Amino acid sequence: MPKTMSEKILARAAGVPAASAGDILWVNVDKAMLDDILGPRVEIAEKMLEIKDEVWNKDKVVVISDHYTPPANAKQAEIVKFTRDWSKRHGIDNYYEYVGPCHQIMAEYGHVLPGTVVLGTDSHTCMGGALGAFASGVGSTEMLGILLTGKTWLKVPETIKVEWTGRLAPGVMAKDISLKTIGVVGHAGATYKTVEYCGPAIEALSLDERMAITNMAVEMGAKAGLIAPDQKVVDFLAARDITTGYELITSDPGAVYCETHAFAAGELVPMVSCPHEVDNVAEVGALGKKAIHQAYIGSCTGGRYEDLAAAARILKGRKIAKGLRLLVSPASQEIWKQAAADGTLSVLADAGAAILAPTCGVCVGLHSGVLADGEVCISSTNRNFIGRMGSKNAGIYLGSPLTVAASALTGVITDPRQFI
Amino acid sequence: MDAAIKGKVWKYGDNINTDIISPPQFMELSIAEAAKYAMAGVDPDFAAKVRPGDILVAGANFGSGSSRETAPLTLKHLGVGAIVAKFFARIFYRNAINLGIPVIECRDADKIASGDLVEIDLGRGVIRNLTRNQEYPCSKIPPHIQELIVDGGLVPYLKKRV
What are the Aconitase/3-isopropylmalate dehydratase large subunit alpha/beta/alpha domain coordinates in residue numbering (chain A) (predicted)? Predict the structure, then answer.
């Protein structure tokens, strides 16, 4: 019987010949990821002391301090210190700090492999679906169980198929695909389900762009966001000296989907998500002149190399609007180095951008760019919930890095196509 | 076990996300301190007025957004006895069960208002609104999950049995 990617990957992880949507399986977890904000310091460390203070397999555990780095105050510094010390005490070699948001680091360092199950204490863990992994966010108590046993139970989700035909027009990015899809499916439309993206427009995207899409699957309530792994995934891994130990698992022709959506990429225009819900989506042109105070390019969703390069294309030789601030946080140290080496960061800085450390801090209002009452920000990140970036009387719009850059030039939310 | 939960209702709307329940700016605090800001996104006075055993009732998609367990943890710290919603976001639902908080899905959640006194029969899957003299069907919690909730969550449940 034909099967979806989710059914096949979860059956493999459970060691059963086949599984179907609705089955509840005990699966072996291939990689368990903890971050600083929701990792050991929330219940996990203390409760492990009470049960068994040893992780089941230290090579399968990855700990990444990314939300509170660099710390804004002594409490945040204590949390990072605690996370670092806990990891050391448990012999976890895969500990990272100050190198970038966890999902990017998981991908860059080869911890997300096609056909595997990756669970993490951050809801955007689903980004790993761009590499063909069944990746999903879990809470801290569930992670505690995984750390002790290496297993958890998962219900095999039904799958929503989202097909994008054709090709994107200039000035339109993967982020616009993501926002358009979320606007149609709705922020609870995929609750308990997998969203599988396919079609020529998706196949044509680079991995940087694909990650911007699967990252936001959880904004529809989804358990996982998947894209069939192909040669681009093989090349991405080969560049990291990984050529074996994974399996390219794709959905079978004729697999059963609970819902199907089809979109024409050629008709897509730049989109924004308006305050305070991610599915409150509109075409940029429909907003009128919406003034902004801050523009932000960064995070696990919108701070990859191609995002910075896209912004640099339209900021080159221009200056951002007076009185406005543009913040840029490359999604990793590696991206920082690449963008510095080829001059991309200089172009952004020359236009007036403040370049920040690779961090989650701005996206979630923990440090480096918190908004005041009445301020408006346009951001390439993944969430615009009320109060997320600081004051609950601030407004957050989400857009592609091109839209953020164009808006930074004019001071109002702007369709980037006029600068292309 | 006593399968009925009785309490006074605090009522909120649709799409109460985890940034509302547990604002990110307060996550570096202890759970006891962070709990003072629970639900601050929609009701800054929630922590001051909620009493142990009270029942939080909301609309659709309660707990959407982050995997942050500080959201159910702070509600648990304040003594919230149960959460009723039309439906829950996936990770929040799992987190609440793991922490021993009854989460009940009820299509008629809109018929319940703040201040109502309700009684939830977990085994039969019925919510009785004692203030309005109405009954609404709701999701049932199977006995083995009820045991986990009565034990106080996954960790005490496992400690007792492993």
Answer: 72-285, 289-411
- pLDDT range class, residue B1, cuts 50, 70, 90: very low
pLDDT tens-digit series, residues A66-90: 999 999 999 999 999 999 999 999 9
- Look at the pTM and tell me if it is higher than 0.80: yes
CATH code assigned at B47: 3.20.19.10
Alpha helix positions (H), B3-153: 18-21, 31-34, 46-49, 70-77, 90-99, 143-151
**Contact in structure between A286 and A280 (CB atoms under 8 Å):** no
Q: What is the largest CA-CA distance in chain A?
A: 62
Mean predicted lDDT score pLDDT of chain B: 93
Average pLDDT over every residue of A358-377: 97
Q: How does strand B4-11 pair with strand B55-57?
A: parallel
Q: What is the mean pLDDT of chain A?
A: 97
Q: What is the pLDDT of residue A138?
A: 97
Contact (Cβ atoms closer than 8 angstroms) between residue A295 and residue A389: no
Please identify which residue in the block is written with the tokens 């604002």. Answer: B23
Tokens of A14: 């459970």
What domains, with CATH codes, occur in chain A? 5-263 (3.30.499.10), 271-419 (3.30.499.10)
Contact assignment for A37 to B64 by CB distance below 8 Å: no
The answer to whether the CB atoms of B87 and A191 lie below 8 A apart is yes
Q: Is the pLDDT of residue B3 over 70?
A: no
Separation of alpha carbons B150 and A207, rounded Å = 46
Q: Is A363 annotated as a binding residue?
A: yes
For A6, A181, A251, A258, A307, the CA distances from A161, given in Å and listed in that order, are: 12, 11, 11, 8, 26
Nearest by CB to residue B64, choosing from A122, A221, A388, is A221
Report whether B103 contacts B75 (CB < 8 A): no
Residue A64, beta-bridge partner list: A35, A96
Are the CB atoms for A51 and B155 separated by under 8 Å? yes
> Where do the H-state alpha helices sit in A204-304?
207-214, 231-238, 299-302
| CA dist., res. A126 & res. A138, Å (int) | 10
Put simply, the answer to whether B65 touches A383 (Cβ < 8 Å) is: yes
- Cα separation of B136 and B129, whole Å? 8
Structural domain of residue B91, as residue ranges? 4-161
Rounded Cα distance, A81 and A86, in Å: 8
What is the rounded CA–CA span in Å between residue A231 and residue A212? 19
pLDDT in tens, A166-175: 999 999 999 9
